[in-house]
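subagent[fold] <- orchestrator: predict structure for attached chain, return tokens only, no commentary.
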Amino acid sequence: MPTPDQESNPIRILVVDDDALAAAGITALLSTADDLSVVGHCLDGIQVAHAIRSLAPDVMLCDVRMPGMGGVDVVRSLHGQAGAPRILMMTAFDEDGQVLDAVAAGAVGFLLKDEDPHRIIEAVRDVAAGDAGYSPRAARQLTQWVQDSPTADARRDALEKLGLLTDREHDFALALVTGASDAELAAQFFVAETTVKSALSAIKTKWGIRNRTQLAVVVARSGLA
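subagent[fold] -> orchestrator:
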């Protein structure tokens, strides 16, 4: 539940989707939450830079496939820029995995467009709070995309990365691909949530990655999850 402070200072969201009907639907959904505010909508990636400067969103929900400047190019263009919002990709269930390129470029999570509405709202909140945003269902799709096109080098690299971890970090990493939150992992392993956060931070440092979605990709490439 949002706190009174969150309701008075709502999370500012920019929706980027060339499908006006889809954008209207996601806007209507997010507007049902008092702590979320959709501040703008872009029909293509070219409009994004100006919208970010003028609207200062905290989170950007960005479609993967758009004519002209697609979602992956949008993420790449914003990587490392001061004031850039945290980016949550939106994709159809039957996409070909382009979202993996977006994750590699800096997106912090992704949602399936026909996701449960509650999951979409929670993912936006998670991303705004500095976490990654993806549901168990999206996590399964992420794993499937990765496992459908593995390479020997990618699998070897992933296994080597897993070999750098302590036993506890290894267990957390494998469990993470289910899309579980920190709180859910803490309950699963009977530890404090701070223990989970510390372990995941240590994994990201050892692997030289930025977020838990990239962490899930590495685990999926290992073939162990």
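orchestrator: received. Logging for downstream: The chain has two domains: 4-133, 150-222. Strands lie at 11-16, 36-42, 59-63, 86-91, 109-112.
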